[in-house]
Amino acid sequence: MASSQSDAAGTGQVSRTPASPALIVAGFAVIYLVWGSTYLGIRIAIESWPPFLMAGIRFLVAGSLLFVGLRVSGVAKPNRREWLDGALVGTVMLGIGNGSVTWAEKTVASNVAALIISSAPFFIALFEWLRPGGRLPAARTCVGALTGIAGMVWLMTAQGSAESGHSGAISIGSLACLLSVAAWSAGMIYGRYATRPRHVLMAAAQQMLVGSLALLAMSLITGEPNRFTFAAVTGRSWFALVYLSLIGSLLTFSVYNWLLQHTTPARVSTSALVNPVVAIVLGWVFAGETLSPGSMFGALVILAGVALILVPARTDKDAAR
User: Is the full-model pTM beyond 0.85?
Assistant: First the structure.
C-alpha cells in the first residue's frame, strides 16, 4: 500500500535547509510512480506467494534494514512507550490495512484496489472529526468526502455486478479493500497524536517491524505455511517481493519523509491523486486490466472528491499573485 503515506504528514514541519529543485522533482517522481506501481507488484508477488506471508516478509526486510541502518548511524532506539504506541499503529496500518488489500488482490484487480485505497482522504477527514477534540471538517472537505464516497460505492457496485452478473453486488475483495483503507486511515490519525520517536524514519522502521509480526501471525493463523513451499515461488514473484521490500517500502518511506522536510505535507499528499492513475496505466499495460464504463465513471468521481480535499482553493489574494 502506498503506501505509510500519510503517517508523517501530521508533523507539518518543513526543513529550513534548501534542497535543489531537481532533487525535489526526483523525490516526487519516486512517490508518484513507485507507490502507484506497488499495487501491480502485490498482484504479481501473490501469484505464488501466500498474501499474508508475502506482506510479512516484505515489511520485515524493509523494517529491519531501515532500523539497523538508523541505529548504526546513531539514531536512538524507541523507548517502551514509543514501542507500545508504534505497535498499535503498525498492527492497524500494516497488519490490518496492508494485509487486507494484499489478500484482496487475489480476486480484485490492482487498478480497482488502488482506486478504493485512494479514498483515504475521506476516511482521514472522518476520523479526524470523530477523534476526541476533533472538529467538523470544512464545507469543501465535506463535499469532497461525500462526492468521493459516492464514487467509491458506484465503483464497487459496478465491479461487483460485472464479476458476479448480479446487479448491485459488491465483492468480498472490494470490502476487504474498504477495510484496508479504513484501518490505514484510523491508524494514521492515531499515529499523529501518539508518542513516537522524534526521528520520523525510526517511527517508520518500528511500524514496519511490528506490522510484519502481525502479518506473519495472520499467516500462521490462516494456515498459509501448511499450503506453501518455496519451490513453488516463481521468478517474477521473487522479483516482485524484492521490489516491494527495497523499492516500494524502504526507498519510498525514506524519500517520502525527506520530502516532508523540504516541502509542504499538502503537496506531498497529492500522491493520493497520482498513484491510482499510475496503477490503472500499469495494470492495463502489464496485466491487461481494464475498467468498465461504469467503473471508470466511479473512478473519476472518486478522484474528483480527492481533488476537492487535497487541492487548495484559490483565494482572491492567490489569484492576484
Answer: yes
